[in-house]
Write a structure and sequence with these properties.
Layout lengths: L20 E5 L2 E3 L11 E3 L2 E6 L8 E3 L4 E8 L12 E7 L1 H13 L7 E7 L1 H14 L20 H9 L4 E3 L10 E4 L5 E2 L2 E9 L18 E2 L1 H9 L12 H4 L11 E7 L11 E5 L6 E5 L7 E5 L4 E6 L6 E4 L10 E4 L4 E8 L24 E10 L1 H13 L14 E7 L17 H9 L5 E8 L5 H9 L3 E2 L2 E2 L1 E7 L9 E7 L2 E7 L20 E2 L1 E6 L2 H19 L24 E9 L15 E2 H12 L3 E6 L5 H11 L8 E7 L15 H16 L4 E6 L3 E2 L2 E5 L3 E5 L5 H5 L3 E8 L2 E2 L2 E2 H14 L6 H8 L1 H10 L7 E3 L13 H5 L5
Parallel strand pairs: 14-21, 23-24, 24-27, 30-37, 34-35, 35-36
Antiparallel strand pairs: 1-4, 2-3, 4-12, 5-10, 6-7, 6-9, 7-8, 8-12, 11-12, 12-13, 14-17, 15-16, 15-18, 18-20, 19-21, 22-31, 22-32, 23-28, 25-26, 28-29, 29-31, 32-33, 32-40, 34-38, 36-43, 38-39, 39-40, 41-42
InterPro entries: PLD-like_dom (IPR025202), PLipase_D/transphosphatidylase (IPR001736), PLipase_D_fam (IPR015679)
Organism: Rhizocola hellebori
Catalytic activity: a 1,2-diacyl-sn-glycero-3-phosphocholine + H2O = a 1,2-diacyl-sn-glycero-3-phosphate + choline + H(+)
Amino acid sequence: MAMFSMFLNAPPASTPVNLVYFEKRPFGPYGQAAGEVSTENGFSNALWLQVSANAAASLRGLRAVWDGWLRVAGVQEGFAADDPTAPLVVELSPGPNQALELRGICAAQQIETPRRIRYHGIDPASLVAAVTTYFHSTPSLRVLTPGGGGLGTFDPNAEQLIGLFLAGSLSVPLVEAGLGVGQPLGTVSTRNLADGLIGFGIELQTDPPMGVATAAQPPLPINRLDPVTFFNTLGAAKLRNGADAIDPAQRQNSWLDNVTKSRVLITFRDEWNAPLLSTSDAVVTGPGAGQSALARMDNVHAGTIVAPTGWHLYTCSIGVPGTRKLTPLNVNTAAADPLVIDTAGPAHRVVATVRPEDWFQPDFPSRPPAPQTDLARYTSGNIVDLLVDGIPAFKRLVGDLRELEDSSPSPGRFPDHFVLIGGWFLDADFEMIERDATSKLKRLLELGINSPHRLIVRALAWGMNVPHETLRTINLLDVPRGAGYVFASAVTFSDPRTSFHWKVTVVRNRFGTFASLGGIDINPNRVDDSDHLPRRTKYHDVHCRIQGPAVVDVTKAFLARWRIHTTEQGNYLDATDSITPTVTTPAEVPATHLVQITRTFQAGTGFGYQPWSPQGERTTWANLRNAISRAKRYIYIEEQYFVSALVRDAILDALNQPTAAGLEVVILIPDSADSSDSIFNPVNDKDSWDRVRYITLSPLMNDPRVHVFSIKDYYVHTKVTVVDDIFCTIGTSNINNRGMNFDAEINAWVLDGRTEAGVRKFARDLRTRLWAEHLGKPLNEGTFAELADIDRGLDILKNRRPANSRMAPYQPRNPGSDYPRLWFTVADPDGT
């Protein structure tokens, strides 16, 4: 059975279609931009059609395209709002099943999914006639306000309800109102009659931009889809059960046969899903000589360019090559410049764009001015896997280490395979997979060393948190094995003024090189998952696993520290020089992630001086500060401490921008700051940490746009920031001034080339995955779909948390304005 309908009844075969329907104005850029003779330029948000005034009434009837909700969106532009006979704009939003079908159909054809359809020009009397029976037929009506809040069941006056409906204050369910697929909603209004033709418009709205309008910034244009492209796609599509999406009888002689279908529209959007407005031109070229179309990216054309049909291959770029990376919608390919699209008309393709240099930052001058880091500004073609909580993270690490046992030998050369471990806390003698004795780190390293393949093992650890047995285990592996040698060594160093805070592994096995980093130490108290069962440690954290060129930077960062520390301790081993990561990614997995590896370590002056790093590095803080300043819709920080005045002030600056009225900040912290891992005795108590956290957060909590939540059910050890479903980081750096300034830290920043529903997939998936866990929701497709829309997700967090939610508004445990004794000089010396 068909699930969708055309806008109008198809004319009977005896009625020539060219005597009924006419195109008045096409959707999209018109005038000179479309190659027309007219000198008028602009953009039509709707496809405007005309129907012959003497056509049968059934041919002038607009019908329901899908099941869902119906509401009046207002009076047609150009008519007085208080005119009871003015043509109306009527909006239909699809129901859940229809939305699911639409999403699949549109994704397969690489077009956007409509969120709603609007008819411009419906006669109000005919619309009232269509809904009157519903308002009179039942004493308990199900209606919605425009914002989606239920009004409940009630028995008011039917005429009053109709008045509210016409005013746009109520939405009604199509099916319950007897207005299912293909049923009439009303006729086109004769108020649009001119020269024997009655005009009406068809508009499809898609995912909105992220930005929010303010007094200083006008509303961003609503994103729209070409109706001709959509209905051509829908007319040829199949549902998941194999049925036709639209009944074939409705496709014959429809209005589609009488509209312009000889164009290809290409819309360019920025990172916030808004039409790209740039000083550069968009350039689209075909495969043949002289095939070129160009358009200025301005408000007039809404980021859209008109290209002729017949080229099939459309090469797209923005201004000078390299300024913006381009990605087609719903395609698992890496961002590129230029981008080649293969399509035939009619088509409306959306291209997401991003300038990576706007997000990935170099180090900025510190004390003294720092040089450029030896790591890449960013690399492309990476695969980053999200690992939430210790059990999934350890499972992936164990899987990577087990492949060392089956490696084939490489006689006569230094080992190709290696394991690098950088740990703030490192325990080699616990089951990383529960009830599996073979999953202990020391056992896995022994298996790798006893395999036919030679192996290098290197471990750097902060000595204050490493069991002696772990060091002994790793160093004892450095003995002859079979025909070759194994090079295994662990180095510890301890400095009470600064911490080696890494949680990093790099494993090269027969399948490639894999780097893992984040907040999860190789430590038995991290064995937990999203259920946080009582028998487990109830410890929440986030890690990631990286394949691709970014692994080279993680390896470089490790080796730089290894060589310095081992040279200082007089046991530098030349075998380390043979460590070379293999940059491979599986062909079947889309390598779409742009990644920057950033670090923190102290400059050569001031507290925590390290002789091997006289210039220091603060690229993690440079990226975080920049990302906060670029946020337009939301900043989400999930953090163990949040006691950094630097980060707090950066957020306050962002909130104080004239265009920041729609910006919201969500901060998630544990119920009590845990100082059990602190070595600073003067402030080594939870009350002191909680006092500083309150002092730090108080100025933010005075702003109603800032929402601070805490969790009691488990300890939040995460170090994650997500901005606008675009940019995010997973790493070791806490939101304290140690993590931003002088402790040894390492983070991965991810910008996904893929876009889904107008946002970057990796950042959106990270946010929704974390919110689902903290809200106590099941980790399934329905939950992710519910939370994916940022407006709806924020509403759930703020106003509609379920009864089993683990999140609650933060309640300070130790409020006050005085800092604990010696806080600045001992625990957080750069906190002034």
